Amino acid sequence: MKIMMGLLVVVLLVVGLVLSLPFLIDLNKYQDQYKPIIEESLNRKIQLQDIRLTIWPRIGTRVAGFSVLDDPGFGSGSFATLTSLDVGVKLMPLLSGKVEVEEITLRDPVITVIKNKNGVLNASTIGRKGVALPETPSRAPIPSTEGPLKILAMLAVDRVSIAGGKLTYRDLSAAKPTEYVLQDLELLLQSVRLGQTPSLHFASLVQPFNMPVKLDGTFGPLTETTDIEAINLQLGLGKTDFTITGKTVGHDATVNISSPVINTANLPIALPLHKPVDIKNLQIAAEVKGQEAKLNTLSFQLFDGQAKGQGKLIAGSDAPPFNGTVTIQGLQLGPALNAVAATQVSISGTAGADLSLQGRGFSMPDLTKALEGTGHVAVKEGKIEGVNLVQEALSILKVVGISLDDAKATAFSTIETDLAIKQGIINVQRLLMDSHDFQATGGGTIGFDQKLNLTVKLNLSQDLSQKIAGVSPVAKIALKEGRLSLPLTITGTAQAPSYGLDMKGMTGNVQEQVKKKAEEAIGGLLKGTTKPQDLKQEGQDLLKGLMGH
Question: N or C terminus: fewer CB in 10 A for the chain?
Fold first, then answer.
């Protein structure tokens, strides 16, 4: 009995001693030894309020009031702060003299990433000892082989987690500074060890969009460099899901992104659309080499059509240069134009296009200034709703009594044209339009501001030309080989187009026909086939027509 009581007392003493260790051992006095190691690893100064030994729920340490100061080039504030940093170690290896980290928990971290007026990120020098603050814009914070990920892998951590907190991104390089916040952070990394493939879970709420974001998957295996052999992730942005695969080698990377359907109303960016649209079966294959990003494949379905493209972009400036090609097949033009804007005139039909573009920057001022390109566009079996080109021409000529199938629409079998884009102007070249009642040719310009300046020659069918000539003396005079040609001008804007006749061209046609009539009359008099009184009557009819016009 005495032995049992003695053992119990010893156990209680041991337990009491263990429980009192956090109060007996003051780890703060060792700050001068471990702070320089952490600061050298992060390439940042740090601050610690308190550090204590913990026994429950696991043996380890707790750092309270942990702060990582910002790069001096950005200010004297904090880059990151934590309410506490808990590091738990495994008991059995510890008893044999080995330290194996089981879990690292960051509670309520507050991280602020800043892009200064020169386009440089304050995160770009973390873990990069001896690297001066760049003078040119940084495309991204490049992971260093001496950075935090390698440190975690070398420590062989079973579990790294973040509970709460927020990440703020502040862009001071734009004309109007912007700020985005990831709040309610939730992060779990497991199996962060060299040679193993960690699993990742991340969730947050993105402001100001109030959009939930979730990322799950694996990447690895981890090596002593930043090379990652395989990346397999599932990304959720609100109601939109993406599958991301790829790999990294040094500062280069390849990535593949796919999504079954993207509704533009669910995206965190505002697009210049009148109504939401669905982008289906998105496929992207890209690679990054240094500051060059190459889009090898872009493919998606839109408005029942297929779009494909490829291109290249050089990062490192506010207006990065780019070039690329786009091919569109089978796109339903009516729904596409209705999604862009509501206009008085709309075009339906099945459209295809081949475009080759180059430019710099993606804002409208940058595109207006620098975007250049050429291409070919064709629309088959469609209709221009809201206007009948022939009716517009008849109205200008004040021709009445001619009935058309649809006075408010122009049906066509084909519209095709070559395009040349430069300095905010789309030059329409070799425009050809085939319709039942006419064939049109012409060209002109369409501005990025939607201003129109087009000239189209309507070569009417013989049947329609004869009907018009029967009620219009001028039209009768202007006939050439039994057909009437009307030079129509289209000005105004895409929302409110205006129509007119090119009187110079029209006058030229009439003069040509008058000259022809005069030559025929003189020839008839010389040959004796035309009587003077008949010539007089024809001249009176001609003058009546011209004066009436």
Answer: N
